[in-house]
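Lecture 7, part 2: worked example. A protein chain together with 4-fluoro-L-phenylalanine.
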Amino acid sequence: MNENGNNREQWGSRVGFILACLGSAVGLGNIWRFSTTAGENGGGAFLVVYLLIVLLIGIPVVMAEFTIGRKAQSDAVGAFQKLAPGKPWFIAGFMGVASSFIILSFYAVVAGWVMKYFFGYITGALVNVPENDFTGYFVNFIGKPVEPVLWQFIFMAMTIGIVVVGVQKGIEASNKFLMPMLGILLVVLAIYSLTLGGAKEGLTFLFSPDWSKLSDPQLYLEALGQAFFSLSLGMGALITYGGYLKQENKLPTAALSVGVLDTFVAVLAGILIFPAVFAFGLDPAGGAGLVFMTLPNVFDQMAFGGLVGAAFFFLLFAAALSSSVSLLEVAVAYFMRKFDWNRKKAVLIIGSIIFVLGIPSSISQGAVPITVMDRDFLTFMDELSGNILLPLGGLFIALFMGWGVKKADALRDSDFGNTVIGHLWFWSVRVLAPVAILLIFLNKIGIIG
Ligand code: PFF
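Predicted complex, written out as structure tokens:
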């Protein structure tokens, strides 16, 4: 029995909880996905919309997930069943568990590429331009049928290794180590990148918006999807993590810290990547390959580039691992409760299923042409989760908080109480967030706008 009167595992400290949530939030999304999406959507204009969405929708929904999780002390599905028995809200939880399978399946593939690149820098294979240049090297590597799957397997095995140890000794302990290291590496690399001569152009690209871009509805959908993906929102990861929190640990500052720091890391990653890209005359809209094909050129031309490359890919690996741990935990927590499985059984079974589910994403990169709706399978899974499932999940979570529970309860359970900021938060989840998400959706599918 713990202090909450149940037998569930718990975080050791509030800081441990915040670091774990930050570990979940900061991931490939901040570095690989953010730089790609910002680069393809014009940089500055994207950033402005992104920041507004994080502040007005993202952080309030983080608060909603924390509130639901801590109150219910359960997993993504169980939380809704406990707080609203007999009502259909738990479907949002099911969507979340499904999203965790989908996201982790392709996430581990990309994380596997990151590991390959890290070893490439350590062993020297990537320190000099390969025979077929960096683009050829990448395309050739991801097009192989077996090797990328092996890296994906190693990455999944490491994720499984952490989650199997448990909430406090596995997830919390690994994040306490990974997050500070990641912060230091990122700051050092960003400062170095600013000394390379492309700082002015890179920073202009990122920070001075071309307002004409704001007329493109795609920009809003991409910014919304990116915000949800980056903050780990809309699939119950933060409900699940909040479910291991003691009642006395306060929520609002935790939500604010996670939202602000996650965004800070994304911007810092932009400051690291774009000046370097411009310094070497490369294209910022380089797409998903930006990190794997463009940046190695940058490292190649830098002093100590091999070392910087190794540090960069290690950073990316650490960020990916702490996020994948949270993705796996969403499904594991659900299956442990629902089927009374122990942690080991749940982790091994679900981890294996997700690994197998990821294989089509891996081989769709060249070995076997698997496409859905004109996209390769990995891109399809990425867009399905980021642009559809997570915003939809976020919509339900906001609606639940804003309409499914009494206002007085929401204010009390969130620790806001009867404060101005509490009322603002409540109106955000009740009206602003749902309306904004719906408008962006409808606009995108061409019903309005
Ligand atoms: N937030 C992670 C990233 O930015 O890479 C990805 C992610 C993790 C999404 C956990 C959703 C989630 F539940």
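The longest strand covers residues 371-372. The CA atoms of residues 127 and 306 lie 5 Å apart. Keep this in mind for problem set question 3.
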